[in-house]
Design goal:
Number of domains: 1
Shape: globular
Strand content: 25-35%
Helix content: under 10%
CATH superfamily: TolB, C-terminal domain
Length: 445
Amino acid sequence: MHTSAIALLSAAVMLVAATEPRAASALPESAGYGPHPTLPEPQKKKLLPTMKIAPAEPWRDDEKPQPAEGLQVNVFARDLAHPRNLFVLPNGDVLVAETDTPDKPDDYKGIKGKITQHTQKEAGAGHGSANRLTLLRDADSDGVAETKSIFLQGLNSPYGMALIGDTLYVANTDSLVKVQYHDGDTQASTPAQKLADLPGGTINHHWTKSLVASRDGKHLYVGVGSNSNAGENGIDKEKDRADILEVDPTSGKWRVYASGLRNPAGLALNTDGTLWTSVNERDDLGDDLVPDYMTSVHAGDFFGFPYSYYGAHLDPRVQPQNPQLVASARRPDYALGAHTACLGLTFSDGNQLPARFHGGAFVGQHGSWNRSQPVGYRVIFVKFEEGKPVGEPQEVLGGFRDAQGNARGRPVGVAIDKRGALLVADDVGGRVWRVTAAAAAANAH
């Protein structure tokens, strides 16, 4: 974008900010967490949304985020091109999706779209995608990947990864592809082969496609985000969007498994094999709406998008409504805070962190942009009891924003490595962090 255009957009933002009252939060951040979050009345629509995002100022030298008490963190890999998602292979090697926003010209129309695009670039996104999977190997088990090799390239904004037998599946922004994988491979031995088309197009508002395989290997599940914030592009543009798709890994044929999920950005299986997702909810209803959430998902579930949120709470902006469908909307299991941008999700199976981080799920919170006081920018842990999340979340890794409010990094994908450490993909920081028990905690484990 030309400098003059940026100046005009900035002036427009300042004008709106000067003439519209700020939608400050009326509730503590904690009110948006847990099985029973507080849901205030939605605020009236403004000319332009609240935009307060932490400018990207990546880590320098040996700077690092702040681990919780009893934990320590080190750089597992650095100098990566916008690492968004992680997949741990059976031999302990780690695949990282180096990926960014694809070309989607119809998602940035009008002054609001141009401002959003410019803001995203200041926040560290939208600078072009490397379109590859990189393999990280820690052969000497010192907690640092000493080798880095391009495993697969020529992809299209890849994100989700899953392995069934000797076949690796990768979810591009517009297709599901597969390649052969053999234990120890450092690069794919065959070109990627398309298995199925996925919803993409020139709007492609939520572009990442999450992916997980069922325990028996009979199905793949793909998370497809909506083509809008709240249906403003037309319901017809939401066909096969805001869904989780169930895919046959042999034929590529798929069906809609669950729907009404605005952006199911993270997919993971609990210890009992139940499918769970972390979901980004809608913006522009005020600081305290709508909480992101994580929830179990079953065939036929509908979660409300775009007509309602958090069950049957109507979104007044969406017209015409669909009361019969809204009546069937399922309430999610656990709220994760309004505008925290929850993306990564993994369960704690096999982790070697202190006991308080066992029996639950880790969530990567990328950080807010549509809230007057920024939230997220951290990794949290949520305890589970009898298969359901309970209690307050615990911060695992914070300090991604500095004292001036800049984002040194922004956590996305999370995974448990072969030796029980927590790995965190940091797209703005260009790093993968490795979280382990501090020496004293490890000795007392």
